[in-house]
Amino acid sequence: MYTKVFLLAAMAAIAVQGQDRGPGQRSFETRCAICHGGDARGTDRAPAIFNKLAAHDNQSLATVIRKGLPGGMPAFQISDEELAALTAYLRTLEAPAPGGRRFQPPVIRETLTLTDGKTLTGTQAGNGFDDHQIRTDDGKIHLLRRVGDKYREVTSTVDWPTFHGDASGNRYTKMDQITKDNVKNLGPRWIYTIRNAQGLQDTPQVVDGIMYVTNVNTCIALDAGSGRQLWQWTRPRQAGVMGGSSNRGVAVAGDRVFIALDIAHLVALNRFTGEVEWDTEMADWHQNYGATGAPLAVGNLVISGVTGGEAGTRGFLAAYDQSTGKEVWRFWTVPKAGDPGSETWTGKDSEHGGGPTWITGTYDPELDTLYWPTGNPAKEYNGDDRGGDNLYTDCILALDPKTGKLKWYYQFTPHDLYDWDATEIPVLVDANFQGQPRKLLLHADRNGFFYVFDRTNGKLLLAKQFIKELTWASGIGADGRPILKANQAPTPEGTRVCPSQDGATNFYSPSFIPATGLFYFQTFEKCSIYTKRTDQWTPGRNYLGGVQRSVPGYSEHILRAMDINTGTVKWELQETPGTTNGWGGTLSTVTGLVFFGEESGEFAVADATNGKVLWTFYGNQNWKASPMAYMFDGKEHIAVINGGNVISFALPD
Fold it and tell me: Which domains, ranges and CATH numbers included, belong to the chain?
């Protein structure tokens, strides 16, 4: 069908060069203009599409028109002939360049005088009463502020260049402008709303004053001081994809920004223009693969994982050359027969064993070691066809980042039957542990235990239960394995297990303050009823082996501060139940503050020493994202995504 559409569209496109565009224009005015405007420049109902379609080929346009967009554009029933005419007309809504190539405006050329007497010449990228952005002929964007009839370039002295802020995974900032005394004066500096979005899980990233935020298959560049959009790149979502329903951010390195797509592709964009430099398929989405995690740039490589633990994929982590997108190495989390670890799988489910890698790992440049957590095995609630521990699911993997070679590993929940991904962030800290300076890895796991490792060799130093009710194990033995309790496996009749399927904690970010020695993280007190059944793996379907449901009337969300030397909870803050979901992580500061998204919908700050709440902001949307911090033009900003709103906070001038 699409071949026919393409031929008709091509013929119509040629015809409209010198003839009446009537059928396509009439179709646009009937179907599209009410939302996008008769001139295609947008209304209060929908954004402009004039000069915005060059990145979409005819097939993707057809998909959007016929299937619509989630939470936004409706689907249209339209014949091949009308679709061809409409497509041809839409192509006339792009500004042609010499030779028939197409490009996107703005094309306002200008020369601006700076306060130091120098000039900048280029294309206007944005413009406001106080802020101005210009793209010079070398492709770079300059962020400016007006000073009378001249301009000055802004400063950006503290970036947030990775999903975690830095490679260690410790969401801790040394900026000290915002303190316990003045945090009460904190207020929104700007807000940017991502259209047709809610419950976003992205952490904004800032490099040289440009902020990058994402939605599924969408990357947006903003002026981090004003929130003004500089560019947006979007690719239509793929109908029927299993594991790409969210996106947690990008990686930035040099002049590139890297984003993973719902169809398990990794794409490199020019970070100043949004133009695609390369697009690499990591796995075939028809086999239930997807991607949601923020990639991680290490050296000249960019490292990315995949989803699909609930859908029976065979998980892996892979590294790609930043310049070309060529795969350099791949580590399979479910070994093939004969490889180390394959002896921990007996039965047919090793072919669809799970072990996804969907949260961003951390990196120690001194040890040159990558630490990456892995997800649950499939069929998660029925282990009959996957006897054994099922390596390397529910693990922390210590890998050589240049080769992908395994240095050491630890498995938190062998033969997991509860969907307890170990995809909680491994936090790297150098600290005194029980009187001795050590290089530590801190990990609060979904299974209800807090772990401390020597990250140089993987030695387990501490394992401590951190929730009130934990039914599946009585502790962690001297051999590092959980001491299992009886009668906790899922059954056809249903088995009550604590913690719940959501886990005692989850993907939202923890943080650590060296001065307090405390680890700050959001936790759940919940239980589930796990029911077992028989499933067959099928493309396009989940592969669960059962079902779970939360135990009614028993759910608490608690912010906890834990002493890493003892595993003792020093304080905890019971969050207020509300109409929103409190899945926001933490950000800690050198001034003794802990920022977090609260269960009632508030963005809040607690005193890091005692948990006293010092400030709140009513966001009133679901928290799924973790906060971050950056310095822009000499002012400390705290930014977070609440629902579909990017909000940047700062103190008054």
Answer: 2-96 (1.10.760.10), 109-153 (2.30.30), 176-221+244-650 (2.140.10.10)
At 8, is the pLDDT very low, low, confident or very high (cuts 50, 70, 90)?
Answer: very low
Which residues neighbour 84 within 8 Å (Cβ) at sequence distance 6 or greater?
Answer: 5, 8, 9, 11, 12
Quote the CA–CA distance of 530 and 545 in Å, as a whole number.
10
Q: Provide the annotated active-site residues.
A: 419
Question: What are the structure tokens assigned to 352, written together?
Answer: 């669809």
Which residues neighbour 435 within 8 Å (Cβ) at sequence distance 6 or greater?
none
Cβ 421 vs Cβ 376: under 8 Å: yes
Mean pLDDT, residues 388-392 taken together = 98
73 close to 49: Cβ distance less than 8 angstroms: no
Whether cis (ω within 30° of 0) applies to the bond prior to 161 is no
pLDDT at 328 exceeding the cut of 50? yes
The structure tokens listed for 326 are 């060529």
The tens digit of pLDDT for each residue in 438-485 reads 999 999 999 999 999 999 999 999 999 999 999 999 999 999 999 999
Helix (H) or strand (E) holding 408: strand 406-411
Q: What share of the chain is helix, strand, coil (3-state, %, to 5)?
A: 10, 40, 50
Specify the 3-state DSSP secondary structure of 215.
strand
Residue whose entry in the numeric block shows the structure tokens 């900003």: 637
Q: Nearest CA to 217 among 236, 242, 243?
A: 236
| Contact call for residues 546 and 641 (beta carbons, < 8 A) | no
**β-pairing, 586-589 with 172-173?**
parallel
Q: Burial code of 576-612, b = ≥16 C-beta within 10 A, e = fewer?
A: eeeebbbbbbbbbbebbbbbbbbbbbbbbbbbbbebe
Q: What digits encode the pLDDT tens for the residues 129-142?
A: 999 999 999 999 99
C-alpha radius of gyration, the chain, whole number:
26
* Cβ neighbour number for residue 643 with a 10 Å cutoff: 20
Residue 91: predicted pLDDT: 83
Is cis: bond before 520, omega within 30 of 0?
no
Q: In the chain, what is the greatest distance between 2 CA atoms, to the nearest angstrom?
A: 83
CA dihedral 217, 622, 356, 549 (to 10 degrees): -140
Contacts of 187 (CB under 8 A, 6+ apart): 617, 649, 650, 651, 652
Q: In what order do the strands lie in the sheet with 628-632?
A: 187-193, 645-650, 635-642, 628-632
Whether 627 and 636 have beta carbons less than 8 Å apart is answered as: no
The number of beta carbons lying within 10 Å of the beta carbon of residue 107 is 11
Name the residue with tokens 């239930």: 288
* Percent of the chain's residues with pLDDT above 70: 93
Question: E strands along 34-94, which residues?
Answer: none
- Burial grade of 172 (CB within 10 A; 0-12, 13-18, 19 or more): buried
Q: Which helix (H) or strand (E) holds 560?
A: strand 546-563
DSSP 264-306: SEEEEEETTT--EEEEEE-S-GGGT-B--SPPEEETTEEEEE-
Closest among 183, 218, 215 to 200, alpha carbons compared: 215
Calpha distance 444→423 (Å, rounded): 10
pTM of the model: 0.86
Counts for the chain of helices (H) and strands (E), in that order: 5, 41
As a whole number of angstroms, the distance between CA 63 and CA 239 comes to 9
